[in-house]
Amino acid sequence: MGKNRLEAFSDGVLAIIITIMVLEMKVPHEPTLAAIGSVLPVFLSYVLSFIYLGIYWNNHHHMLHLVSRVNGTVLWSNLHLLFWLSLLPFTTGWMGENHFAAATLFLYGINLLCCAIAYFILQQGIIKLQGAGSILAHAVGRDIKGKISPVLYLLGIGASFVSQWASGAFYVAAACMWLIPDRRIEHEVAQHIPQ
Amino acid sequence: MGKNRLEAFSDGVLAIIITIMVLEMKVPHEPTLAAIGSVLPVFLSYVLSFIYLGIYWNNHHHMLHLVSRVNGTVLWSNLHLLFWLSLLPFTTGWMGENHFAAATLFLYGINLLCCAIAYFILQQGIIKLQGAGSILAHAVGRDIKGKISPVLYLLGIGASFVSQWASGAFYVAAACMWLIPDRRIEHEVAQHIPQ
Amino acid sequence: MGKNRLEAFSDGVLAIIITIMVLEMKVPHEPTLAAIGSVLPVFLSYVLSFIYLGIYWNNHHHMLHLVSRVNGTVLWSNLHLLFWLSLLPFTTGWMGENHFAAATLFLYGINLLCCAIAYFILQQGIIKLQGAGSILAHAVGRDIKGKISPVLYLLGIGASFVSQWASGAFYVAAACMWLIPDRRIEHEVAQHIPQ
Amino acid sequence: MGKNRLEAFSDGVLAIIITIMVLEMKVPHEPTLAAIGSVLPVFLSYVLSFIYLGIYWNNHHHMLHLVSRVNGTVLWSNLHLLFWLSLLPFTTGWMGENHFAAATLFLYGINLLCCAIAYFILQQGIIKLQGAGSILAHAVGRDIKGKISPVLYLLGIGASFVSQWASGAFYVAAACMWLIPDRRIEHEVAQHIPQ
């Protein structure tokens, strides 16, 4: 089965998720710059989640570049990933509206962790489908980033009820780590895939 | 007439439906885990409908794989299916917000039944267009799942004013039945369609 | 310039318009079938606009099938059409929420009329670009439906403050007329375009 | 890496942004034409932003026509542009709801300026990737429009607390300037790219 509709559907869902998040930013009723200032926490949480969704879209894009066919397991693993990503506007909005309160940082971290696990399951499903000599397995290699980020999410979750600053810092750190593009896969693509 | 735009449009609509459902989950105003607990019924109804929409997308994907051209009847049968699917966020939100009250389970079942009927009409329209020796007709075969699921929806509708648990169980059972991927069509694709 | 992105963008916008209309249907707070009954006018207005958007998508699909390249004028004529279509959720919601009050029928008709004019402008832009021997000009022919429907919209607009039933009937009649698929263009496609 | 998914994702996000803006137009509760009149400022702000988003989609479309491959920097520059564009529904809604108050014109101009800067960064990223003899660099040439428009935005921002009419006029003027299609790139496409 081809991967085109999988890509198209995923792009559609990711485009909608990333865009409807902005709907969580309620337009203030007063036309003053002070009123805009009160939206700042929501805006910051929006920026963070926008970057996370950008990272997922980017990595998803790279990963599917190394895939030529999909099966039912991969389709459902992909939907499973999209499910957790689709909850990000909710957890982001809750976190921003409540000025990064402990419980909201806790839930946001849980959401990020579930996304990471779902991404890992999808990656393993593709590698299993590709079998021995999987291009993706080779490209992913030891997957250091993929192993560090859940640890950072867990640290953020653990820190949420202790120090909100520390908790937020772990989530920002994980995003920064991923912003560095995944040269491994870009490298593999350059070697294995005719453009 | 080609099927590409039909697929693209359907993917777009399904991606939007599946994503805007999350907008029905209103962000609670208190930053406590207890407040999140109150969203749980809405969350559970969202999970169920997400799975149903995933099933429809999956089956739609498989079915159109066996289609090479479409006509006006197929275009409108497809829009008819999308219409009933687009009502799912409404019936899902109503059901979740009212903690699976009898009337909401009743309406949700009606909605699922209409989706199933619309899917059946679309399938028949494609088979009729393909004529004798239709690949889809061969792949669908006796369509046992397609015959069992409306019965389950009817049982769920009938049970809704008697036992909410039983009603919900029928809807969950139908979803579980479909989650097992449609090997028949995957099998046909492997045999008949050059990848 | 190719037409692919034009089609993709139009499909995206139409898919979103058709889907977000359902967001205008506010979930009632009481879990009773009577509460659902109160949503009926909104539901009926939604059905009508869903059919209109389906008609536009269908005709747009057929028309672009006869187009091989586009220019800046066509791109902007297309955006102009999408603009008026994007207002349909607003005018539909207003009409449904106010039980088809005179002013809402008036505005709905204006919106339909603007969509029809914008579609005509787009069609003329494509015909002009194709030049003498335009396939689209040949397919559209005398464009009887395209000439009758604005008359029906005008009648509906004129009747809105006199009889709400008559006004609504004109809008329903125009939709019914279009539901009959555009055989002219399907015919041309079958003759001129290799599938 | 191919540009197809970049185009598809950008089209999706732009289609959603342009469409959800209409959700900012709240349906008035009274069924009178006077009630509709009160929506007029929101409507006008919506028209202006619709045109801006159309311009961006159009220019983006033209620009990517001259691109054959993308890298990580281009992907992220594109997401950066989409980020600022995704804020337009928010700033537009705030401006319309508050009848073009000074602070709202100020913020709207800031948003337009950020979009322009992000577009410039994306353009430079592509030119850098294409290297010496870049088709895009040649097509863009001295980029007079791209240099005038930020000046107009800055004038609009500066004028916002002095004269709301002048401020709005600068934003309208910049949009009008861009509405004239970008013949330079169309010209290059006609010369360099096989259709």
Secondary-structure topology with pairs:
Four copies of one chain form a homotetramer.
Chain A: H1 4-20, H2 33-37, H3 40-65, H4 72-86, H5 88-97, H6 102-130, H7 135-140, H8 144-159, H9 164-179, H10 183-192
Helix pairs in contact in A: 1-3, 1-4, 3-5, 3-9, 4-6, 5-6, 6-8, 6-9, 8-9
Structure description:
- Chains A, B, C, D: It is found in: Membrane.
- The structure is a homotetramer of 195-residue chains.
- With 195 residues, chain A is mainly alpha-helical.
- The first copy, chain A, has one domain.
- Chain A is 77% helix and 0% strand.
- In chain A, helix 5 packs antiparallel against helix 6, helix 6 packs parallel to helix 9 and helix 8 packs antiparallel against helix 9.
- The first copy, chain A, is globular, with a radius of gyration of 18 Å.
- Chains in contact: A-B, A-D, B-C, C-D.
- Chains A and B meet through helix 1, helix 4, helix 5 and helix 6 of A and helix 1, helix 2 and helix 3 of B.
